[in-house]
Design goal:
alpha/beta; nine-stranded mixed β-sheet; 16 helices; 31% helix
């Protein structure tokens, strides 16, 4: 795929910037400056030094697998794989479509944080414009995708007499920024783009068309901007918590049972990490909470076989939406090309609410469904995963096409997110129809590995919990007893609250997170010393040299330690 440096010459390659207001347009920064180049490594998401990247998954201890899964789940929210592409992926900057000449202009717009958002604006050439100001559709891409995702929609929008503007959200594609926020900050990006568009004096009414994260962004902006004429909302989620619940429900179908209070604690830790890393609360990733007072006409769309953002999300949003609304269910999954009848419905919807004169429509534009407007449909090329001939002629390979034109959240990426969520709770993902395994083991028997590479079987765990020592200490004795029962922790001899905490820390089923690492090490050391003085068999502390727990440096001088329970169970602090 292409490199991001190509953005530096974007405006020059694709024609003049259409009167971009000085207040919001800016030259892109040099690669690596202000997020303009490669993503900056975040120490909060690094692995400890004692977990080499080259360790194969089947040789990781449980705590190593859990930490890796936790970090990857955080990345799935705030730093998913970034779509990289060249300007050539956007097609020609001038082309003929249904007998009329069109052009594309590429330019930057600054958001409120001063980050450069890379934008593209498709419109008729001056001599072809039916009016000085045309209705405009702003297209917003999904997670891990970028503005080329708009190309399957471009023929419909231009053909009915509108212009189209697409842009890369901050943290996506060629725009500045290192993180995404699933709509929370993206709506501010959209606000900046709308401000530029209105100042350009080139548009009349504005409609929003978003897919997945882009649809969520439209909803979250729409509640504060009643001037928007219409919204097309393809596969939005109703609440990020609902996606997690759907994943856990899929786990239950495979026999994975995780107590709800353990899930709640893990999600609380996830909220804390996301807040520290990307400066937003995942509680705000709930577009269903933004519907009150939003009366913009909305057309919802969902795919019947989408098992990542299931149709129930769109159905909940549609049911709660107070404005004019309709909903379409289509065949396919989250990434499937949308059928022609959906494009026909969208065309009728946009013509009505953008008030596009019927006489502006280009003859024969309806044939351009899911193909770029500069490619003739008479050549027999369609759009779909099995038919890439059109795009190969444009210099794209099938992998590029699947990423850029059908949304970046591939089936493989969805499966990874599901597996990471399960791994945090001590369960290893398995192929369809195969019961899930414990961490690292076969046949439901988890395994741990010593520094010498020896493999030891450890008792199967019913579940695990990722939490902090502070959370444990804040819990009541009753809550701690419930936790030990749910995790099947031996509580023989436990009387006081501290006894239950000691039992949990020594069980190998509690993963400590964040800044409580040193406190946990001190607490475990005190427990060991006290038990040894009493003649008991205390849990041995491991430094990562082959014991039941693992320890390591976080790169900043702090030590990670955990208590093993003498049965070979592995627990560790996650820094």
């Amino acid at each position: 795929m292409g490199n991001r440096a190509s953005a530096d010459g974007e405006a020059g390659e694709a024609g003049a910037v259409p009167d971009a207001p000085e207040a919001t347009a800016a030259a892109p920064p040099a690669p690596g400056e202000n997020g303009g180049g490669a993503a900056v490594e975040d120490p909060a998401l690094r692995f400890p030094d004692d977990v080499p990247d080259e360790v194969p998954p089947d040789q990781m201890s449980y705590w190593q697998m859990a930490k890796q899964a936790y970090n990857e789940l955080v990345n799935a929210i705030v730093r998913p794989p970034r779509a990289e592409y060249d300007v050539e992926h956007l097609g020609p900057d001038q082309f003929t479509f249904c007998g009329k000449m069109f052009m594309r202009s590429d330019f930057p717009v600054l958001n409120a944080k001063g980050q450069s958002l890379r934008c593209s604006f498709w419109e008729p050439q001056p001599q072809e414009r039916p009016a000085a100001r045309l209705p405009c559709v702003i297209y917003m891409h999904g997670n891990s995708s970028a503005r080329p995702e708009c190309l399957p929609q471009l023929g419909l929008v231009l053909g009915m007499g509108c212009s189209l503007l697409a842009f890369d959200f901050a943290g996506s594609g060629l725009s500045d920024g290192d993180y995404v926020s699933l709509g929370v900050h993206e709506r501010d990006d959209l606000e900046a783009v709308i401000a530029w568009l209105r100042q350009s004096q080139r548009c009349s009414g504005i409609a929003l068309w978003g897919r997945s994260m882009g649809a969520v962004t439209a909803i979250m902006h729409g509640e504060r901007d009643p001037s928007i004429a219409a919204m097309i909302l393809d596969s939005p989620f109703s609440d990020l918590q609902d996606i997690a619940d759907d994943m856990l429900a899929k786990g239950r179908e495979q026999g994975v049972r995780i107590p709800q209070f353990i899930v709640a604690i893990a999600l609380r830790m996830l909220r804390s990490t996301v807040q520290k890393t990307a400066n937003f609360s995942i509680r705000d990733c709930a577009p269903i909470n933004y519907l009150e007072g939003c009366f913009i006409p909305a057309l919802f769309c969902a795919a019947r076989s989408d098992d990542f953002i299931t149709p129930s999300h769109s159905e909940r949003l549609h049911a709660a939406y107070p404005g004019d609304k309709n909903i379409i269910l289509v065949d396919g999954d989250h990434n499937s090309p949308r059928p022609k009848f959906m494009f026909d419905s969208v065309g009728i919807f946009l013509q009505r609410y953008l008030q596009v004169p019927a006489g502006w429509a280009l003859q024969g534009y309806e044939r351009f469904t899911n193909i770029p407007p500069w490619v003739s449909p008479d050549e027999g090329f369609g759009f779909g995963y099995a038919d890439y001939n059109v795009y190969e002629r444009l210099g794209l390979d099938p992998q590029d096409v699947e990423l850029l034109y059908t949304g970046g959240l591939s089936e493989e990426r969805q499966a990874e997110i599901q597996a990471n969520l399960m791994s945090i709770f001590g369960h290893q993902a398995a192929p369809d129809g195969v019961p899930p395994q414990g961490a690292g083991g076969a046949g439901g028997v988890p395994r741990t590995h010593t520094a010498a590479g020896d493999v030891r079987e450890v008792p199967e765990m019913e579940g695990s919990i990722a939490t902090t020592l502070e959370d444990l200490q804040r819990s009541s004795a009753r809550q701690l007893r419930s936790m030990t029962r749910a995790l099947h922790v031996d509580t023989a001899g436990c009387v006081e609250k501290g006894d239950y905490i000691d039992a949990l820390l020594g069980s190998g089923r509690v993963i400590l997170l964040d800044s409580e690492v040193e406190q946990a090490a001190a607490h475990a050391a005190a427990t060991t010393a006290a038990a040894t003085a009493n003649g008991g068999s205390a849990a041995a502390l491991s430094s990562g040299d082959g014991g039941g727990g693992g320890g390591g440096s976080d790169g900043g001088g702090g030590s990670d330690a955990a208590a093993g329970d003498g049965r070979g169970g592995s627990a560790a602090a996650l820094s």
